């Protein structure tokens, strides 16, 4: 994959500094491979460093322009505002620096979750093809074309690339896939396949047994997720439905017994317009996280 003009500019201007930073940073190299970010570590760091400089220069210029306009008397801005604006360029550049190292790990974790979710079904596909006597080359080549299996298909595509384009044997291709895969389950599956091949075992029997094991584990995970959703549903009724109703009733009673109506009305608006929407968003996020993809 070719570099964009912006990335080439970043590498030409900051490639030396980035190369020294990337030297010996094996974690970044592995994270980029597992995240499928198709950049060398020095190119990736140079690109990120240029983003930091652009963000710092842009925000600093805006703060400086605002200060000059204020000094000219064109606008009235309290001096206390600049206490919060001055650190903004540094904070923004520091945030981009942190994201530089977090993004590969976050993408790799996202890919690992997708692989773990779809692996039981993809393994069932693999076991079916192995039972029909299909060779490992053809199994992974066919799996790579099945987009329904998401990142598992992408991993199979890389194995197929190693087998067909680079001319590697099955054991070598699977070994490389173990090193670059972000999923522990997928690594375990491929490592077991390597052991089976090198020990002269039956790959068909191995895939069938692993398919049964992964499907059983998947059912158990879905059962635990459903139990968690049941507890979450009960909490939702208590916190989002019954709780606000109780608070509104209490505010009405307090108003009837002489409490300040404006304070009660403000608290009511706070409950209806802020607390309830935030609670619903929180529960929606929790449900999305706990709900397994089937």
Overall structural domain count: 3
Largest sheet composition: none
Fraction in helix: over 70%
Shape: flat
Radius of gyration: 28 Å
**Spatial separation of the terminal alpha carbons:** 33 Å
Number of helices: 11
Along the chain, the helix and strand elements come as HHHHHHHHHHH
Q: What amount of the residues lies in strands?
A: under 5%
How would you classify the helix and strand content by structural class? mainly alpha
Query: What's the mean pLDDT score?
Result: 84
Q: Based on DSSP secondary structure assignment, what is the total number of beta strands?
A: 0
- Uncertain stretches: none
Spell out the blueprint of helices and strands.
Layout: H1 5-22, H2 26-35, H3 41-71, H4 79-85, H5 88-131, H6 136-144, H7 151-164, H8 170-180, H9 184-198, H10 203-256, H11 261-290
Helix pairs in contact: 1-3, 2-5, 3-5, 5-6, 5-10, 6-7, 7-8, 8-9, 9-10, 10-11
Structure commentary:
By secondary structure, the protein is mainly α. It has 3 domains: 104 residues; 105 residues; 73 residues. The protein contains 11 helices and no strands. Helix 1 packs across helix 3, helix 5 crosses helix 10 and helix 7 crosses helix 8. The chain starts with a helix and ends with a helix.
Summarize the structure.
With 294 residues, the protein is an all-alpha fold.
Features:
mainly alpha, 3 domains, 83% helix
């Amino acid at each position: 994959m070719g570099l964009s003009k912006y990335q080439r500019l970043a590498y030409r201007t900051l490639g030396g500094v980035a190369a020294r930073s990337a030297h010996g940073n094996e974690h970044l190299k592995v994270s980029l491979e597992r995240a499928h970010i198709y950049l060398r570590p020095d190119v990736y760091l140079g690109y990120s460093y240029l983003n930091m400089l652009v963000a710092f220069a842009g925000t600093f210029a805006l703060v400086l322009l605002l200060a000059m306009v204020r000094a000219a008397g064109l606008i009235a801005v309290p001096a206390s505002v600049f206490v919060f604006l001055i650190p903004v360029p540094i904070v923004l550049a520091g945030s981009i620096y942190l994201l530089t190292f977090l993004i590969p790990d976050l993408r790799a974790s996202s890919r690992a979750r997708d692989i773990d979710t779809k692996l039981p079904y993809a393994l069932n596909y693999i076991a079916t093809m192995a039972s029909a006597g299909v060779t490992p080359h053809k199994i992974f080549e066919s799996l790579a074309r099945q987009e329904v299996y998401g990142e598992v298909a992408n991993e199979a595509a890389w194995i197929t690339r190693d087998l067909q384009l680079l001319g590697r044997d099955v054991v070598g291709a699977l070994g490389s896939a173990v090193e670059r895969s972000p999923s522990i389950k997928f690594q375990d599956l491929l490592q077991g396949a390597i052991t089976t091949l090198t020990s002269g075992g039956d790959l068909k029997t191995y895939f069938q047994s692993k398919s049964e094991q992964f499907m059983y584990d998947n059912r158990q995970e879905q059962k635990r997720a459903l139990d968690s959703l049941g507890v979450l549903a009960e909490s939702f009724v208590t916190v989002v439905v019954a709780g606000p109703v109780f608070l509104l009733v209490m505010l009405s009673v307090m108003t009837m017994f002489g409490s300040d109506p404006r304070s009660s009305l403000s608290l009511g608006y706070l409950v209806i317009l802020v607390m309830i929407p935030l609670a619903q968003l929180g529960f929606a996020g929790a449900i999305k996280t706990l709900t397994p993809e089937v």
